């Protein structure tokens, strides 16, 4: 891969009680997006993973 893509953030409202796993990224050198180039990233992005089986 030799391309950096823009991430689209989306917020949704879940109208039921569910449990999820929240993770927050750490700063890291991105060595996989561009061949032979390392790009430092700030980290701090968060996501919440909710398995589809939990949504009914």
From TrEMBL:
It comes from the Bacteria. Residues 12-49 form the Bacterial toxin domain. It holds the Pfam family Ntox46. This is Bacterial toxin 46 domain-containing protein.
